[in-house]
Sequence to fold (781 residues):
Amino acid sequence: MLFGVLRFISKGWVYQLYIEPEYFFGYLGFEWVKPLDGNFMYLPFILMVIAALGILLGAFYRFSAFLFFICFTYVELLDKSNYLNHYYFVSLMNFLMILVPAHRRFSIDSWINPNIRQKTTEQWHIGILKFQLAVVYIFAGIAKLNSDWLFEAQPLGTWLQAHHNIPIVGGLMQEKWLAFAFSWTGCIYDLFIVFFLLSNRFRPYAYFFVIFFHLVTWYLFPIGVFPWVMIFSTLIFFHEEKHQKFLHWLERLFNKERPAKTLITKPRSTSAAMRYFLIVFIAAQLLIPFRYVLYPGDLFWNEEGFRFSWRVMLIHKEGYATFYLHDKATGRESEINNAKFLTQTQEDQMATQPDMILQYARILKEHYDGKTLHYGDYKFKIEDPAIYARIYVSLNGRPSQLFVDKKQDLASLPYNLKHRDWVEPFQP
Amino acid sequence: MTTFNRLSIIGLLAVLILGTAVSCKPAPDPIPEFDKASLLVNIADNQIMPALDDFDAKIGTLETDYLVFQANPNATTFETARNSWKDAYISWQTVKIYDFGPIRDYALKGATGTFPTDTTKINNNIASGSYTLGTAANVDAVGLPSLDYLFYRNDALSTLMNSSNAMQYGLDVIQKMKTEIASVNSQWTSYRGTFIASTGTETTSSFSEFVNEFNRDYELAKNAKVGIPIGKQSLDIALPEYIEARYSGISLDLLEASVVGLKNAYTGGTGVGFDDYLLHLERSDLNNSIIANFDGILAKIGTFNGTLEEEIQNNWSELNDLYTLLQGQVVYLKTDMTSAFGVLITYQDNDGD
Fold:
């Protein structure tokens, strides 16, 4: 996490993603989350660095974990153009880490206050983290059970062939069978790796696969720190004795006395409130990825119920969106230069995602409503304009199709979680 | 438990093998081999470097002819310099597509082709006689568009003959361009190796940059050369002050040269280009559509006889049709072609997922 945040800052993304843009695409219900002014936007990132250090060293652990969670989630809620499943994963894991006492041993907290030192922890502390990982993998696997992935080897086929110039194996990348092998292996890996990690017998082999799988994805795809997060997170599946050994080794580095061997105990000291909360949390995690069944139409095309569902690397969408400002009084029309309002990333994301298209239409209406535009000798006072769009999208290598037609004033449409029937139906 | 595990492993292997086997089964027609490296070599050697040489030479001729005019200003020498300017402007339409590597490093695109030119700024510079043409503030007072004003405004010849400051300004603009294209041209010789070796998929790779800049230049041509002047971004109110090369009236020639340059960038001339990549990816339909659109656009441009300004006044709906053709092609280039290549249209690295 520390590395991730530092990488984020060093690449200049704080500026590009949170200071440079003029408009932001908030999440429904969270539009009140606004960015800080100018360079103050670096503040949450600096706090995250401090908090990540705190978590790592076990210093003021709960506060650090809370601080990191708040800052990280705050930043993620600012703009859905930057939504990534693995950011959601980091947010969830962090939330769980607030609940789990991971500072009871080998930490600065326990050095300051030896009373909190514990050799034992409750089963659910580890169980809930395993559960979260299992959810990620298994739902990612289930999501891959679709015809594009399994029978067209898309979008992997497109992404892999682009690598045909890498040394030695480059020629293979253009082979269709390789794309199929990758697709099927990835799907089976995601579906079953958790069960192998849970089995004492297969765990070492399974972990080898974890490393291998994530290294391959790290090499081939621009997925940042995610492979490393998964490689290290899945270590939690190892038996506590392994972790104890490592901890002993670390403690010896710091010249501490060798502690007695300890194991996890299972006392039920957790409060009832916490237990109910965990039940709700688990249920939500299991249900949210399936919410798409409530919507008609094609999930990949409409993207209704797509986010927060571990649909990783499933779609390759490219869109071209032209928005029109329509003056109702005169019937005159202007094409909007999207670059005037959005960054390149925002424009790319917006062009293929209906909820963002609607949000953008509202941004445009708000910008132009009541404005007087001057063109040469002409003057137009724009009142209550309509915003139309014509958008073409290509999904998973198919020829592009009409996504949104110039039929409806997008700015007048309701923005909610209901099915969006103004998106043109998908023609497979 | 163990039996279950063994069974499941066998099951998984079976599925895996079956999956691969099924996918291998239909023996496909042999697909033409394709190699991004050879595309980059062809674009570098047969498109970019010849274009730079050509523009370099045309600016050289322009300088020579302008010096002759300066030494002996009359209608004949002026006309020769004007024609050299026109040739250089046409040649520039190809160079500007390749805005990466040294062309970007030297900010050549902005310094050479920014329009509409700011005539007030130019006149202030001339009046004061002291200026630094390389500043960002002067970007719309230099380059080929500034010469359009100096060479073709009303009484251009007499103004130049009567004002040594104006005469000198023209020379300074030309010599600035000459220095810059010479530097870029020599830099490209050493950059070539870097360019053809960068075959990866990251956004900074040569191939990604080429695809991105190709698309960007296409859209720029569509919007700046046609869309904005005919009023597509101003409630259908035509904006003649935004016309490229408004004083000389060669706007449509420049547009044609720009589209021809883009088509050649797409096909790679007779060598390896995007068209070959699409054929390799079994997207010949898409390639046919793109070629047909390019040809349709060029044919449409050929139907206009007047200057862009005249056509806006007399023939607006035909220009609107041309714009619709240009617009239709963007979908193929930016959406279909780019997604088929697996290139991200983005100017920023990301964390992906």
Observations:
- Residues 11-29, 346-353 of chain B have pLDDT under 50 and may be disordered.
- Chain B touches chain A through 57 residues (CB under 8 Å).
- The CA atoms of residues 98 and 104 of chain B lie 8 Å apart.
